Predict the 3D structure of the following.
Amino acid sequence: MAEQFDLIVIGAGSGARYGAQKAARDYGAKVALIERTRWGGSCPNVACKPTKAYLVVADLLHDINTIAERLGIEVGHARANLAKIKARKDSLIKPQEKWVEDLNGAGFATVEGEATLVDAHTVRVGDEELQADRILIATGSRTAVPPVDGIEDVGWIDHVDALELTELPESLLVLGGGAVGLEFGQTFARFGSKVTIVDALEQIAPRAEPAAAAELAAALEDDGIEMITNTFVKSTRRDGGQIVAALAPRDGSAERELRVAQLLRPRPERRGAESRADRSRDDQARNRRGRAHADERRWHLGRRRRDRARPVHADRAVPGADRSRRHVRDGGVSRLRRAPDRDLHRPRAGPARADRGRGA
Ligand SMILES: Cc1cc2nc3c(=O)[nH]c(=O)nc-3n(C[C@H](O)[C@H](O)[C@H](O)COP(=O)(O)OP(=O)(O)OC[C@H]3O[C@@H](n4cnc5c(N)ncnc54)[C@H](O)[C@@H]3O)c2cc1C
């Protein structure tokens, strides 16, 4: 029989943990978290934390090379050793086993594998079914692949790949001047790559005031970054060890070619209901690229009918996607009683449970 919970949370990123902690702390809910790729989700593993670790190094390099001498500090020209920078970044990341230990210690059941919805109250993970009054879908984002001719054939990288590089690309085209693209652009420029950022919009940082975006663009240009706005990357192709991008200005002026060693597409987009065509395109992209972490670009949820609810490509997903693993610590959720009649919208009376939903 399927194990019963008050709340099942699909995903174990920041959003999932916040929801799980609130349900446990404020409502005394028995909660299960399901994660298929990395406990902790993106932010601490492949997004906020590791990129900030890189930014700190990039900043220091920049200061050494630009102001140290002026301040009377005698050092030679500083160079980035990306293999060592990456190794340090990796050492800052909490191990997966520790995530599971902490989540179990906070009172949550943890199930490893890819979740698919069977019905409004049932989730399947491998051969296992779990049931709950409520299911929270907190499955995060995936990299938005722009409609550029040939992009899937050139071996582009996303933010996860970029954080795995151990050799600095001599040149880098960053496709998109949003927050993540700018962060990577500046980091790699300061590490020593020749960076070009191309955006179809009129300004980088599209949510910023135009004046602020202009200041930012000027500062990035001071770092040696070439900023090309109002321009589409129309197509890409491989030419030996290089990627050749055709850049088409939106005002109809002449196209130009840009040759780079690496193409970075860092922009995440929210996962949600998406068309079958999108999914199929993503799957083709994944097949071509053949990367283990590409499971992040797939989305199987939202299939309500039981006969369609199993993972579409379980055999091709990450190791473990076709099975599930339970981690329930002694004294953890297995001992909690379910309260099926409790209204999860209504906070419990009395003090919040301080012993649960904390510290993970
Ligand atoms: C490079 C980069 C830098 C960033 N820097 C910052 C920053 O400095 N500050 C900031 O505030 N934000 C930053 N962000 C944004 C931040 O990382 C996200 O807002 C945050 O991680 C979103 O959390 P989430 O819980 O919604 O999703 P995620 O952390 O992505 O978690 C979703 C989880 O769901 C899992 N999942 C998906 N489908 C299934 C399934 N079917 N079954 C089981 N599990 C599934 C995934 O494996 C994933 O682990 C950055 C983002 C990027 C890409």
Residues 272-360 have pLDDT under 50 and may be disordered.
